[in-house]
Write a structure and sequence with these properties.
The chain is an all-alpha fold and 434 residues long. The chain folds into two domains: 197 residues, Hypothetical protein af1432 (Orthogonal Bundle), CATH 1.10.3210.10; 188 residues, no CATH class. Helix content is 69%, strand content 0%. The N and C termini lie far apart (67 Å).
C-alpha cells in the first residue's frame, strides 16, 4: 500500500478542486481527521496495516465533496475504488476502507472497531477547545447550502446533535466526552439567554395584539353597520341573536351584544383560560362601543354585494381577533372549546351553529334573507381561514419506523422540515389458550 503517494495525490486534489463555499469540509479538515485517527489508534492499540487502512479511509472520507455534499460518503467510496488500485490496494482492502467511510454517515453507525475510530476522529473537534471556531466554519457552510437559515436554528441543531451524539472508543470517551458536556451546557445556557431576551419582548407582542384587536373590531363594526344591519341581513352566533332582538324590540345593538356575550365569556374563564376570557371581554366591549359610534349607512342595496363584501369584512375582523388569542363573539367560545374535542376546524363549527340561527331567522324574516345571510357567512368563513391559517395548505405525514433517528435527521437537516416525534412501543394481546 503506497499511502504516502496517494496522500500527496489526494490532498493536492482537495486543496485545488474543492468548492470555494466549503468553509469546514476542506483539505485542512481531512488532515485534522488523519491526525485524530493516529492519536486514537495509538490509544486503541491499532497499528501496522490496520492503521494504514484507517488513515486511508480518513484521507478519502470527504473526497465526495469534490462533486457534491449530498451523499458524499457514497461518492467517496466510488473515488476510492477508482484511484486506490493504482496505489497497491487490494479489492479486499478497498472494501474495508469503504465500510469504514460509510460508518461516518450521519447518524453514525460503525459496525467494527475501525469504523468506531474513524467516526470518533471525524468529530474529534467536538470535545476540544477549538470547538467554537470549527462550529462557526460549519455554520457558514450549512447556511450557504441552506441546511440552516439563522443562528437560532444553528444553536438548536447543535444542541440536538450533541445531546444525541456518543463517542464509541474508550480513548475518545476519556479524552473528549467531558469537554463535549461542557460545550453542550454552554450552548444550552446561550439558548436560555436568547429565549429570555425574546421573553422581554412581551410588551411589543402585547402592543401588536392591541393594534390587531382595535383593527379587527373596527372592520367587523363596519361590516355590521354599513352592510348587514341597514339591509336587515343577519350575523351569526350571539351577534345574530342580538340582531334579532334589535330588529324585533329595537334595543341598542351594542348593549345587547355585550350583555348576551357575558355568560359565555364567564364560561370561557373556567373552561378555556383567564387570558382568553379577558381578551374576549375587551374585544366584545370594544365592538359594542364601535357599534355605538358608527352610524347606520347602507353602502349598497345590492344583496349580492352585501353578502360578499359584508361577509369578507366580517371574516377579516373576526380573523384578526382570533390571531390575538381571543374571540369576537361568545358563540366562538363554544367553537374553540369544541375544537379541542373534535376534528372540525373553528370555521366549520361556527358555520354549523350559525346555520341553525339562520334557519330560525328564515322563518321570521323570510327565506331569501336567510339564504343571503348564509352566503355572507360562507364568505366570512373563507376570510377567517385566510387570516388565521394563512393562504397555504399543508399536509401532515405520519411515519412509523424502527429507524426513526435516521429519518428524523434526514427530514430536519436535509429537507428542512419541522417534525413532531412520538415515542411508543408495540403492544398486542395474544389469543387465550384453550
Amino acid at each position: 500500500m503506497q499511502y504516502e503517494q496517494v496522500y500527496s495525490f489526494l490532498i493536492n486534489k482537495l486543496e485545488k478542486e474543492l468548492p470555494a463555499y466549503l468553509s469546514y469540509h476542506t483539505a485542512a479538515h481531512t488532515k485534522n481527521v488523519i491526525a485524530a485517527v493516529e492519536e486514537l489508534a495509538a490509544g486503541e492499540n491499532v497499528s501496522g496495516n490496520d492503521l494504514t487502512l484507517l488513515k486511508t479511509a480518513a484521507l478519502f472520507h470527504d473526497a465526495g465533496f469534490l462533486q457534491q455534499s449530498a451523499g458524499h460518503e457514497e461518492i467517496s467510496c466510488i473515488i476510492s475504488r477508482e484511484y486506490l488500485p493504482g496505489y497497491g490496494y487490494s479489492n479486499e482492502q478497498i472494501e474495508q476502507i469503504c465500510r469504514t467511510i460509510m460508518a461516518t454517515r450521519l447518524p453514525q453507525s460503525p459496525s467494527d472497531h475501525m469504523g468506531q475510530i474513524l467516526c470518533d476522529a471525524d468529530l474529534f473537534y467536538i470535545g476540544k477547545e477549538g470547538y467554537t471556531a470549527n462550529a462557526e466554519k460549519l455554520f457558514r457552510e450549512f447556511k450557504y447550502t441552506k441546511v440552516v437559515k439563522t443562528e437560532s436554528e444553528w444553536e438548536l441543531l447543535q444542541i440536538e446533535f450533541l445531546s444525541s451524539h456518543q463517542y464509541f472508543t474508550k480513548t475518545a470517551i476519556n479524552l473528549l466526552d467531558a469537554g463535549k458536556q461542557i460545550i453542550l451546557q454552554g450552548l444550552k445556557q446561550k439558548l436560555d439567554t436568547t429565549l429570555a431576551v425574546q421573553h422581554e419582548s412581551e410588551p411589543a407582542r402585547l402592543m401588536v395584539d392591541a393594534i390587531l384587536t382595535v383593527l379587527g373590531v373596527t372592520i367587523a363594526g363596519i361590516a355590521l353597520k354599513l352592510f348587514l344591519v341597514p339591509n336587515h341581513f343577519f350575523d351569526g352566533g350571539i351577534t345574530g341573536i342580538s340582531l334579532l332582538v334589535h330588529e324585533v324590540y329595537h334595543f341598542n345593538l351594542g348593549l345587547v351584544i355585550v350583555l348576551l356575550n357575558l355568560p359565555l365569556i364567564i364560561v370561557s374563564y373556567y373552561t378555556i383560560g383567564k387570558r382568553f376570557a379577558f381578551k374576549t371581554l375587551i374585544s366584545v366591549i370594544l365592538l359594542g362601543i364601535c357599534l355605538l359610534l358608527i352610524p347606520n349607512y347602507a353602502m349598497t342595496a345590492d344583496k349580492l354585494l352585501i353578502s360578499i363584501f359584508g361577509g369578507a369584512f366580517l371574516g377579516i375582523g373576526v380573523g384578526l381577533i382570533m390571531r390575538t388569542g381571543a374571540a369576537l363573539d361568545g358563540i366562538e367560545v363554544l367553537a374553540v372549546y369544541t375544537l379541542k374535542r373534535t376534528s372540525f376546524t373553528i370555521t366549520e363549527i361556527i358555520l354549523g351553529l350559525n346555520i341553525v340561527i339562520f334557519t330560525i331567522a328564515g322563518f321570521r324574516f323570510g327565506l331569501e334573507t336567510a339564504l343571503y345571510s348564509i352566503l355572507t357567512y360562507f364568505t366570512a368563513t373563507r376570510c377567517i381561514d385566510y387570516v388565521v391559517e394563512g393562504l397555504q395548505a399543508y399536509t401532515g405525514v405520519t411515519i412509523v419506523s424502527g429507524k426513526s433517528d435516521a429519518i428524523k435527521y434526514q427530514l430536519v437537516n436535509k429537507l428542512g422540515r419541522g417534525i413532531t416525534v412520538y415515542k411508543g412501543e408495540r403492544g398486542f394481546c395474544p389469543a387465550s389458550l384453550k
